[in-house]
């Protein structure tokens, strides 16, 4: 048995509950299939197929001096998603369980997440990884990189922060470092690094981080630009990323949203974006046919008010699934 399996917890059917009087196949709790990654994976006969994969970890947030609680995020998102209506029929969507971070061993948990994501991708299943802190991105990327080495990859991160902080002593990462780690991995393998951030807050990133982003040719669309009604410009921004890459990795940090919409995050944003300033771009990307994998990070249920952030995250998953277009293979 592969070592990464020691960090894996299979899915539980008790998570998927809803109204008993719902018509058959009407809601997510009725159509989700359980997928135990310890067992042989099924042959997929209907595409696209999705798998929710939890990353129950907030060690990266702790290392980044944030308020912890994101390890509870995957369960909260699943609970909120269970009751949402399903509009796409038939729908192939699995719950693939969780990767756990134990004994503060973030690096092993990230490696395990990469192995699990790669396993799903090889099976033709699109992962939707549920964090967990944004350290999820470095583990998730490892799986994408293992699966696809040759094709050009564009990264779009909806986030108030660059998450390109310097590594900690002993080369340890945190929730603030994943995209610097990805940048360095690209440099080591001489791959083009195409990193694009939407929703960046000037006041939330020190000047040195803007300089780091510039050094790695990061493309930025500031939150204030969307607040100033530059919507068409952002459509073009996203279109350019799609057009210059064969594959897209979409990462969504929930702290990109304003605190009234997303109070349950590690770092709430007073001047964050509204859902309707973000969802159209998620739909645009999902419909492009180029997104290889998705993740949603930083839901912290202990600080959530009325489950607002969990419900918002669930609606993002809903849009990903309902707007996602199957990627074309090289032989299509």
TrEMBL record:
Gene Ontology terms for molecular function: agmatinase activity; formimidoylglutamase activity; manganese ion binding
GO biological process, one term: L-histidine catabolic process to glutamate and formate
UniProt xrefs under InterPro entries: HutG, Ureohydrolase, Ureohydrolase_dom_sf
Pathway field: Amino-acid degradation; L-histidine degradation into L-glutamate; L-glutamate from N-formimidoyl-L-glutamate (hydrolase route): step 1/1
Positions contributing to Mn(2+) 1 binding: 134, 159, 163, 253
Residue ranges of coiled coil: none
PROSITE patterns: ARGINASE_2 (PS51409)
Keywords (A to Z) from UniProt: Histidine metabolism, Hydrolase, Manganese, Metal-binding
Binding site for Mn(2+) 2: 159, 161, 253, 255
EC supergroup of this enzyme: hydrolase
Top-level taxon of origin: Bacteria
Catalysed reaction, written as an equation: N-formimidoyl-L-glutamate + H2O = formamide + L-glutamate
Keyword Ribosomal protein belongs to the record: no
Cofactor(s) required, per the database record: Mn(2+)
EC identifiers of the protein: 3.5.3.8
Co-factor remark: Binds 2 manganese ions per subunit.
Pfam assignment, any one: Arginase
Function: Catalyzes the conversion of N-formimidoyl-L-glutamate to L-glutamate and formamide.
Family per record: Belongs to the arginase family.
Protein name: Formimidoylglutamase
């Amino acid at each position: 048995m592969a070592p990464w399996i020691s960090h894996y917890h299979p899915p539980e059917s008790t998570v998927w509950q809803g109204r008993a009087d719902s018509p058959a196949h009407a809601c997510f709790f009725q159509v989700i299939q359980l997928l135990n990654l310890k067992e042989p994976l099924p042959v997929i006969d209907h595409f696209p197929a999705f798998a929710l994969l939890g990353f129950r970890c907030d060690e990266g947030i702790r290392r980044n001096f944030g308020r912890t609680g994101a390890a509870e995020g995957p369960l909260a998102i699943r609970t909120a998603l269970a009751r949402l209506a399903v509009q796409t029929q038939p729908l192939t969507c699995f719950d693939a369980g969780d990767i756990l971070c134990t004994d503060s061993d973030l690096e092993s948990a990230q490696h395990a997440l990469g192995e699990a994501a790669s396993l799903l991708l090889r099976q033709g299943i699109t992962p939707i990884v549920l964090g967990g802190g944004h350290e999820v991105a470095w583990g998730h990327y490892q799986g994408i990189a293992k699966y696809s080495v040759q094709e050009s990859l564009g990264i779009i991160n909806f986030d108030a922060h660059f998450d390109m902080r310097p590594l900690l002593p002993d080369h340890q990462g945190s929730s603030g470092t994943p995209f610097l780690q990805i940048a360095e991995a690209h440099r080591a393998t001489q791959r083009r690094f195409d990193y694009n951030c939407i929703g960046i807050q000037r006041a939330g990133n020190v000047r040195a981080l803007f300089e780091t982003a510039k050094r790695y040719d990061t493309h930025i669309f500031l939150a204030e630009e969307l607040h100033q009604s530059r919507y068409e410009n952002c459509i073009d921004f996203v279109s350019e990323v799609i057009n210059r890459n064969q594959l897209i990795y979409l990462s969504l940090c929930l702290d990109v949203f304003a605190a009234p919409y997303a109070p349950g995050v590690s770092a709430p944003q007073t001047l964050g974006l509204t859902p309707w300033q973000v969802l159209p771009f998620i739909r645009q990307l999902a419909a492009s046919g180029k997104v290889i994998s998705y993740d949603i990070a930083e839901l912290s249920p202990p600080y959530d008010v009325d489950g607002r952030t969990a419900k918002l995250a669930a609606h993002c998953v809903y849009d990903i699934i309902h707007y996602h277009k199957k990627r074309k293979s090289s032989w299509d």
